[in-house]
Amino acid sequence: MSQKGKNEWAVVLVSGGLDSCVTAAIADLDYRLAFLHLNYGQRTEERELRAFHEIADYYRVEKRLVASVAYLKEIGGSSLTDEAIPVSLADLDNPNIPTSYIPFRNAHLLSVAVSWGEVLGACKIFIGVVEEDSSGYPDCREEFYRAFNRVIALGTRPETRIEILTPLIRMTKAEIVRKGAELQAPLGLTWSCYQGNERACGRCDSCALRLRGFARAGLPDPILYEG
Fold this sequence. Notes:
By secondary structure, this protein is α/β, with parallel strands linked by helices. The chain has a single domain, classed as Rossmann fold (3-Layer(aba) Sandwich). Helix content is 36%, strand content 11%. The chain has helices spanning 18-27, 45-58, 71-75, 105-120, 142-155, 173-182, 205-217, and strands at 9-13, 32-39, 63-68, 124-126, 163-165. Helix 1 (18-27) packs across helix 6 and helix 6 crosses helix 7 (205-217).
């Protein structure tokens, strides 16, 4: 949890959720951490921001950037940003993309991360996306990040060398939980729920994936749920 002896900067996208927390724990092994959090008008914006700062405090992160991409709420099209669209009840066998998908969100988040990373002289951007055990979001696919790395190479200064790393992308939630426990990541500080701010609802896709991950890992989920 110390930045001593680490010379290269890495920007870590930290939503405050389980996946981003474990990703931060992995990045902390080798890099100086700069934490980035994006507010986009999501239902649990305040709760996620609290989780972000608590995780940053745990890792003693001094460089933090909280930025707004609130235009994603104005664009709409997602139950996370539009109160008129109900959050879908969990259905982990549903082959369709759930209402919680925010159109092309991760491209916006990565663009901010690259801009900040170029100013910092960072060499890596860490993002905790998961392809196999996720809700099927198209911007969580591995080929998307390979393509974005090419965009970075084309769109930054010639001397800039920034690479996106997705250490969790091929892992299941159970594997992520076990990795977090192994690295002593502060999983009890994380927040995954799409709609609850005091207690997690336990009914949305994100809660269901998280609960299943902890159950399959054989570990108790340290956060509180409704009911």
